[in-house]
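Hi Y.,

Following your request, here is the sequence exactly as I used it, all 181 residues.
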Amino acid sequence: MKKSMIVLAVSSFLACATSCNNGNSTNASTEPEEVKEEQQVEEAQVVEEDRLEAASAEDAEDESAIQDFITNMYEKGLYTEYDFLEKHCSKAFLQYLKDQYEYDGEGYAVWLFRTSSNDGKPGAEDVKSKVLSITKDNEGWYHYTFTDGGWHGENKIKLHMENGKVVMDELKSVYDEAAIQ
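Below is the corresponding structure, written out as tokens. Let me know if you'd prefer a different format.
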């Protein structure tokens, strides 16, 4: 009787050990499959990390291109050139600039890119128009602070990259020193 109980206990233990293992790494028959799954997960993580690094580098290049675009557009007065606007504005933004044009005939409201002053600030007429800073807010707007013939201003502009080209979507005045004088 004692012998049969020992045999019964051992066989119960072995049965439980085999069925209760549930895929733990000690089960030799499932170990290669688990190793494969772990390797696939690790490879997927490496691919995702590489993709994120590439996207991050591309985003950094886009950010740099956009900041250079804003600086050149303002400091070189490119916003006054209709060909430039037609190449770098979305259709909706071009329509907005047309709608804001206040004179006879057709044109674009190019003055929206600067302060409301047509003349230099008294005593600062020699100050060149210059971008002082560019920042991006959490809503995707680029804020550029600038001088305009000595007057200070700040605009916010929405832009995006399209086929390697910067495209303007929207522009709003944030601060216009000339308007409050």
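The chain has four helices and four strands.

Thanks again,
Q.
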